Amino acid sequence: MSLQRRSILALPAVVAAASLARPAAAQGAGVLRIAVGGSLRTLDVTKTTTGEEYIYDVLVFSGLTRIREDQTIEPDLAESWTYSEDLRNWTFRLRQGVKFHNGREMTSQDVVATYRRILDPETGCAARSNYEMIEGMEAPDAHTVVFRLSYPYGGFADILADRQAKIVPHDGFDALATQPVGTGPFMFRSYTPGDRLVLVKNPNYFEPGRPKLEGVEIRIMPEMAVRVAALQAGDIDVVWDLGPENIRALKEVAAVRVESIPTATWDAAILNNAIKPFDDARVRRAFHMAAPKQDVVQLVLFGEGAPTHSPIPPNHPFFNKEVPFQSKADVAGAKALLAQAGYPRGIKLPIIVPVGRPLRDRLGVTLQQLLRPAGFELEVQRVPYARYSAEVSGKAPLFIDGYFARPTVDTATYPFLHSKGSWNERLWHYNDPRMDKALEAARLTGDPEQQKKHYLEMQAVLADNPVSYFSYTMNFACGYRGNVKGVATHPLRWFDLRDTTMAA
Amino acid sequence: MAGFVGRRLLSVVAIVWAMTVLVFGIVHLLPGSVAHMILGEFATADAIATLERRLGLNDPLWLQYWRWFSALLRGDFGLSLTMDRPAGPLILEALGRSAILAGISIVLVALLGMALGIHSAVKRGSVEDQVLTIAQYVFIAIPEFFWCILAILLFASWLGWLPATGYTPMGEGGVLRWASHLVLPVATLALGLTAHVSRMVRSSMLEALDSHYVLAARAKGMPERVVLWRHALPNALLPAITVLAIDVGLLIGGIVVAETVFSYPGLGRLLIYAIENQDLPLMMGGMIVVTAAYALANLVADLLYALLNPRIRYGGAA
Amino acid sequence: MSGVALARPGRRWPASLVVGGAVVGVIALLAILGPWIAPYPPEEFAVLDRLRPPSAAHWFGTDEFGRDVFSRVLAGAHYSLLMGFGATGLSLLVGVPLGMLAAFHRGWVEEAVMRGVDLLISIPPVLLGLLILATTDPGLGKTVAAVGLVYVPIMTRLSRAVALGLLAEDFVDAARARADGMVRILWSEILPNAWSPIIVETALRITFAILLGSALSFLGLGPQPPASEWGLMIAESRPFIEEAPWIGLMPGLCLCALLVAVNMVGEGLRDLLDPRMRGRGHG
Hints:
The structure holds three protein chains of three kinds.
Chain A: H1 2-10, H2 13-26, E1 31-36, H3 51-60, E2 65-67, E3 73-75, E4 78-83, E5 89-94, H4 108-119, E6 134-141, E7 144-149, H5 156-159, E8 186-192, E9 196-201, E10 215-220, H6 224-233, E11 238-239, H7 244-251, E12 256-271, H8 281-290, H9 293-301, E13 305-306, H10 331-340, E14 347-354, H11 358-371, E15 376-383, H12 388-392, E16 398-403, H13 409-417, H14 424-427, H15 433-444, H16 448-464, E17 469-481, E18 484-485, E19 501-502
Chain B: H1 2-29, H2 34-39, H3 45-55, H4 61-73, H5 87-122, H6 127-141, H7 144-159, H8 170-180, H9 183-209, H10 212-219, H11 224-261, H12 267-277, H13 280-308, H14 310-314
Chain C: H1 15-37, H2 69-104, H3 108-121, H4 125-134, H5 140-167, H6 170-177, H7 182-218, H8 230-237, H9 246-273
C-alpha cells in the first residue's frame, strides 16, 4: 500500500494517468495488435496497392491458390487443378461448402465474377495487366472454373495467388469498400482511417480449428520510433516492416523477437535509356563502375540486404553467380567511359527521390556522394509519390524507385525488361534483342532447368548492357513480442495468421 | 451586437467560400493526378484515362467546381477519391477527435497560462518570477516537432515505456483509457503556448497593477485581494484573449505534427493525407472545416474582447 | 490601452536586446564562417565512423553516413537565418506598400486589398505553407516565399493602420496642398514616421518565420537533402532517435538557441522603440 502510494505520488500526473491505462490495453488477450506505418486507403481488395493493404487482403480474403513462406504454391479455395498439354486451358476444382462471412456459399460464379471485375478496365484494378492472358472463363458447374489463355503460360496457378486476386461475392461489389465480405480466416468489423482496422475471428472458416486468435487489430502509427517503443512497452504485439536501423537495437531487447529475411523486393536508380545522357550504354556502365553495390548496401541498409543484378534476388536458384560485382569504385575507368561517350567534363543532372521514404532518400544521397568523384554531379530533388507517374516515371532521366516482390520470376522480370513489357516504357525504355529472346524462351518452357539457363543469360546481358542500377534486394524484418507464436515472416510482406497463438 | 455578430458570421461564410475557390484552383495547378494515385504503381495509360473519365477529371474546371459546390449545398462533401467512401463522415469524425485535442489544450493553456502569468506578476522580481520568465523565453522558442522528438526520446529510450498512442473512443475503454491517449499530444501542444500566454498575461498584469485605477483602489484602502481580482485581472485578461485567439492558429499547425507523431487519428493527419494523395473532396472538406473553425475562434475572441472591454466596465465608474 | 504606462528612464539599451543580439550575431558569424571553420566537409561520408557519440574528434557526434554533425549544423545555420530574415523581409516588401496603398486609396482598392488580406489571414499558416509547397518543387527559395506570403497580410494590416493615422495629420495635408503625388507623400511623409511600429512588429515576426520555415522543412518541404537545414536534420534523425539521439538533438538545441535569441532581440527592440507596447502579443 505505502509503496504504491509513494510511486503514484512521486510521479507527475501525466505518468499516473498513463500507467493506469496499461492493464486495460492488455485485456484483449487473443487479439493480435500489428503496427503499420501508413493508412489503408481502400478496403476493396481488388483495388489495393500498398503493403499495409496487402496484410488485410490476405487475412480477410482467400484466393484460388496461396503462396507459403517458402514461396511454394498451395491450394486455397481451389482444391486441385489440371492444365492442358499446351498450357492454355486451366481447370480448377473448388472446395465445397466454403461460406462468405455473410453466410452465403462461395461458388464458381463468384470466381468468374471476381476475375471479370479484375479484367474490366473500368474497375481500375492495379494488377489487371498480370492477367492479360486470360481470354475466356467458364463455370461448367458450381465448383469448377475453366480459364482459357491467349498464350501458353506455365505459372498460371502461381499468379492466381497474388494480392488483388481474392475471391469476392459477385452480388456484393458495391459494399466492398465499406463492409467487405470475404472467405478468409478473419472478418471485417470496423475501420477508422488513420487509426485502426479491427478484424475478428471467422468462426466458420473452411479449415476447421483455424484461426486460433480471437481477432487482429492493425494499428496505424506513422512514426517508426513510436512503433518500436510501443512494441517494447507491450502496447502492440507485432511491428510490420522494421527499418534496417531498428533491427540492431531491437535484437538486444529480451521481450522481443526480430526476424529479418531476404526478399525479392528491390530498389534501383532508374536510368532512362531513351534520353541523354543514359541513352549511351557507356554512361550506364560508368554509373555502375563508380558505385560498388556492396558499399551501397552497407550505407543504405546497414547490411540488411544484398546486391543484385536484376529483380532476381541472390538467394534464388536462378541468380547468376558468374557475373561479378564491382568490388571497389573505379573512378578512372568511369571517367574514361564518360569521356568516350562525349562527357569529358562530367554530367550534371537531378536525381529524383520520392518524399517520405527514408530508405530511398538515403539511396539518393548515397549515390550522389559515391558518384561525385567520377564526374556525376547529382542534385537530389524530392517529389511526392502522387506526382511520380505523371512527371517522373518513364520521363525523368534519373530517379529512385523500387518494387515489391512478385509471385513468379516471370512476373518479376518480363514486364520490366522485355522491350514490349508493360513496365519497360514506364521506367527506362530498354531494348536489347538478346534480352527479349531470353525472356520469351523462359516463359514458353515448363522445364525449370531450361528456364534457369535463360534467366542466367538474361543477367549476363544486363552486365554487358546495363539497363539501370539495380542497387539491391532488401531484407524484410518484423518485430514480435516473445509470446507471439506460430507466425513466420513472409517474403511477400504479409502475414499468415491461421496458426498464430499468443501465450498468456 | 446582434448586427455585428451577423455581419461577422457572414464574412466567415464568405471567407470559407473564397477559400474553396482558392484551393480548387491551386489543386488543379498540380501536375500530378489523383488517378495515378488511386491506381498506384501498376497504373497503365489507358487505365488512368478510363478512371479520369469516370471521375469527371477531364470536364472543364467550372463544371467540376459546380458539381462539387452544388453537392456541398445539399450537405454532401462528396466521395473521398482514394478511399472510396463518403468524405463527410470521415472529416466529421476526425474533426471531433481533433476538437477534443484542441479544446483540452486551449483550456489547459488558458488556465495554466493565466495562473502562471498572474503568479509571476504578483511576485514580480522574485526568484520564482525570474525562473518562470526564463522558462517562458525558452519554451516559446521550442518548435512542436522538436518537443515530439524530445518526448519520444524521454519515454522510449530513457524511461523505457510509453504512454498510450493512437486513440480509443470513450465508450470502448472507459474515460481513463480515453484520457491516456491524450496525454502526449496535449502535453506537446500545450507547453509552448502556455509559455506564450503566461508571458502575455504577466506583462499586461504588471501594467494593470501599475495603472492609476489600481493605485487609486489601493489608496482607498481596498484589500489587496479585491484590488487584484476585481480591478487588475479583468484588464489583464483582454490581451490574453487576443493571444489565445492567435494561438488557435499556432495550435492548428502544432496539431498536424503532434497527431502524426503520436498516431492520433485527427483532422490534421487527414488533411496531410488528402494533400499528399491529391484527394480533392477530402482536402476541400477538411480545409473548409479548419478555416471555419479558425475564423470562428477569431470571432469568439472579438466578442469576448468587446464584452470585457474596460471602457465598458470602467467607463461610468471611474 | 488605458492609463499610465511606465516610461523607461532614458534610452538605455534593454538587456534582452544586447544578449539576444550578441547570440544572433555569433550565430550569423558562424553561418558565414562555417565553410572555413568546419572541422570536416559537411557532406563527406565516413562509413567506419558512423553513429558515433559526441567526442573530441566529433563535437556533436556523427550521423548515419558518418558525416560530422557539428560541421553540418554549421553549414545549415544560414538556412534558418535566411528563412527568418528573408521571409520577413519579403513580407515587408510586399505588405508595407500594399497597406499604404490601401490607406491612401480608400474605396475599391482598399476593399480589394483588405478582403484579400482577410482571406489569406484566415488560412492557418502551416496549411497555407503546405498548400503552396505541395504545388511546386520544394527548395529554399520557395520555402522563404511561402513563409513570407503567410506574413504579408499581417504587415499589410499593420502598415495600413499606421498610415491611416498619419494621413490625418497636418503635415500630410500640407503635402497634399503642395499637390505632391501619392508615391511622394507615402515615401517622404508617411514612411519615415511609420517605421517604428513596423520595425517592432517585424522583429517579433522573425521568430515565428523561423519556426514556420523549420516546421515546413521538417515536413520535407524546405531545402532538399543533403542540405543540412536544421528542421530537415531533425526529421532525418528520427529513425535513429534511440541509437544516436545526438543527430537530432544538436541541431534542435541550436535552433532553440537561435529562436530564443531572436525573440529576445524582438522584445528588446520593442522596449527600446515603443515602451508602451511592452508585452503586447505576437503570433
